[in-house]
Design a protein that fits this description.
Elements lengths: L15 H14 L4 E4 L7 H7 L9 H7 E4 L9 E6 L2 E12 L2 E8 L5 E4 L10 E8 L1 H8 L1
Antiparallel strand pairs: 1-6, 2-7, 3-4, 3-7, 4-5, 5-6
Amino acid sequence: MRPRPVDPCHDTDWSQAQKKHWRKYMARFFPHSVEFRPPSRKYNCFGFAYARAHGWFEEPDFFIEDDFTEVPMDEARRGDVLVYEKSGEMAHAAIVKEATDGKIKKLRSKWGELAAVIHKPREVHRAYGHPARLLRRNRRHAAATMK
């Protein structure tokens, strides 16, 4: 059975005033992050990283087991998914945007109901914990992701 998006996958999205508020929040607390998609309540980091920005998922294990393989952290490359953990639990996921000699330089990720941003690996909200493992999309799924 495929996972279904769960609340808070809202029927309505943020108003323009609310988006402006969240952009100010990000500029204040995460000034080095660069927005590339506006704040949205339609999908979260797991929906972004594992399902191409489709839905709000709390349990991404199905996607990981079906579509990904864990790889060594020092072999990162563009398109891999960096998993963050807090207290032993998966808390966040981000797509590698830039890696040099296997070291992650920049990521793309969706921050809860906030914007999708480009950021460095350690420049995340403390609720997301720390980088814990690296996943690579299996070949049969990789071609579809890069389109």
